[in-house]
Amino acid sequence: MREPFVGSTRLRLAGFALHAYTASGTVLALLIVIAAIDGNAVRALWLGLAALVIDGTDGMIARRLRVKETIPWFDGAMLDNIVDYLTYAFAPIVLLWSGDYLPHGAYGAVLAALPLLASSYQFCRVDAKTDDHFFLGFPSYWNVVAFYVVVLGLSPTTTGIILLVCSVLVFVPVKYVYPSRTKAFRSMNLLTTAIWLAAYALLLTQMPDPNAVVIGISLAYLGYYAALSLYLTFWVPRRKVA
Fold first, then answer.
1. Per-residue model confidence as pLDDT tens digits over 22-52
2. Which end of the chain is more exposed for a tag (fewer CB within 10 A), N or C?
3. Does the pLDDT value for residue 115 go beyond 90?
4. Model-wide pTM > 0.90
């Protein structure tokens, strides 16, 4: 198949459209915050799902369109980080705070601040995404945390503990799988991630009484993701050395 010419006007316009597609995540973040303030957690989570889909697809499209070559003066990676911080960290924490999913008072405020500060640190690390396509440290999946807090109806105390633990894990150098880019088990990662996204949507349609089987399938993905990340961080390097 013939490669598109990077100087092509059509290809450059497609690149601009792709950047606009990525930037739409900022609007979704605003809508998530509005839904949270309105007290509509389910609507906020639907919007969060849309943000997940955009984030999971824009990178692959960008590489196909060779946007770094066609629009070299525009930093798509920075745009992606801005959008990710808003949709993965800021908006989900607003949802947890405004929906009374966190303890009241100063304790709850501190717990809400921890993920934002930890993510601010992580998003500024040059090695947050490694050369072999992993996330270094807990990858600011606060949107996923918020999803389970709402769907499972977790208590403020439990939610606070999860936020505290995950904030600490941001600084622990475990290599977490980047589902769309990590080469190891990539086909399985893409398949299981797609199943998880489908389970996410199905659970939202079942609210406020989500099906236990679907919850189990959804949580099984988290177990798979965590186990694979630990395996690839600690076990595989040891085998190579041996």
1. 999 999 999 999 999 999 999 999 999 999 9
2. N
3. yes
4. yes
Q: Half-sphere exposure (CA, 13 Å, Cβ side) for 139?
A: 20
Cα 118 to Cα 72, 123, 172, 175: the distances in Å are 30, 9, 11, 17
What is the pLDDT confidence band of residue 241, given thresholds at 50, 70 and 90?
very low
Q: 134-188, pLDDT tens digit by residue?
A: 999 999 999 999 999 999 999 999 999 999 999 999 999 999 999 999 999 999 9
Mapping DSSP onto H, E and C, the string for 149-190 reads: HHHHCCCHHHHHHHHHHHHHHCCCCCEEECCCCCCCCHHHHH
Burial class of 10 by CB neighbour count within 10 A (0 to 12, 13 to 18, 19+): exposed
